């Protein structure tokens, strides 16, 4: 359980309940109430001490910073554009690999033809 307040904290209601699974300890300036298993205690007025806590700003990821600075639509458009560029580059690379494979096949076919026509010994000198 965590109760935080800046300034004054008031809990009001017909019944305000604080409970702990195994035990509960409530300290005030003048009283201390410890509730262990099967022990119950109540009070007309209990004052709780507060602890000063420090909060830190949320650390944003690079994507969140980009969205915050440029807007969601701009980030989506840029990512879609970058995906299209990467896809086009992949297609160009695949085409280059296909041409290289065809060239290697033609060279191998030429080597086989030359070896078959001239013989293996004479093909070395051509």
TrEMBL record:
This is Uncharacterized protein. It comes from Brevibacillus antibioticus. The lineage of its organism: Bacteria, Bacillati, Bacillota, Bacilli, Bacillales.
